[in-house]
Amino acid sequence: MSQPATQPDSAFLLGIAAGGVVGSLSRYAVQLALPHTAGSFPWSTLVVNLTGAVAMGLLVAFLVARPGAHRLARPVVGVGVLGGWTTFSAFAVDTVTLLETGHGGAAAAYVLSSFLGSVLAVTLGSIVGQRIWRIAS
């Protein structure tokens, strides 16, 4: 039987919120730096999602290597910063927009590069993180 969920404290909630602000504003900056119009390839969304996947792999490797890490590391960085940084909803809208504007090939390439790229990116981040934190310990 699972343990009942505990109520998060204010540091937990504020940490996630602050991390979300950092991640979201950073993602917006990338969107400004790499703008795209309807029907053009959404490089900004692909960049944030792939780099977010690498960062998630690094975070997981860190947390596994450091079981005594601060209790807010995972929620602030994983849920807050990386949750604000990455964006599935923009990925979905970009894909539909590519399809609606007659760019089916680009939509397929985008979906494939996003999904496969993200899985590979998490794997890469995890492998690199395991090596970094094994050396550092």
TrEMBL record:
Membrane-topology annotation of the record: Multi-pass membrane protein
Binding residues for Na(+): G83, T86
Pfam families: CRCB
Transmembrane region(s): 12-34, 46-65, 72-93, 105-128
Origin: domain of life: Bacteria
Localization (cell): Cell membrane
Catalytic reaction list: fluoride(in) = fluoride(out)
Main location per the UniProt record: membrane
Ways its activity is controlled: Na(+) is not transported, but it plays an essential structural role and its presence is essential for fluoride channel function.
Metal-binding in keyword set: yes
InterPro entries: FluC
Entry keyword set: Cell membrane, Ion channel, Ion transport, Membrane, Metal-binding, Sodium, Transmembrane, Transmembrane helix, Transport
Oxidoreductase found in the keyword field: no
GO cellular component terms listed in the entry, alphabetical order: plasma membrane
GO molecular function: fluoride channel activity; metal ion binding
Functional description taken from the UniProt entry: Fluoride-specific ion channel. Important for reducing fluoride concentration in the cell, thus reducing its toxicity.
Family as reported in the entry's similarity comment: Belongs to the fluoride channel Fluc/FEX (TC 1.A.43) family.
Stated name of the protein: Fluoride-specific ion channel FluC
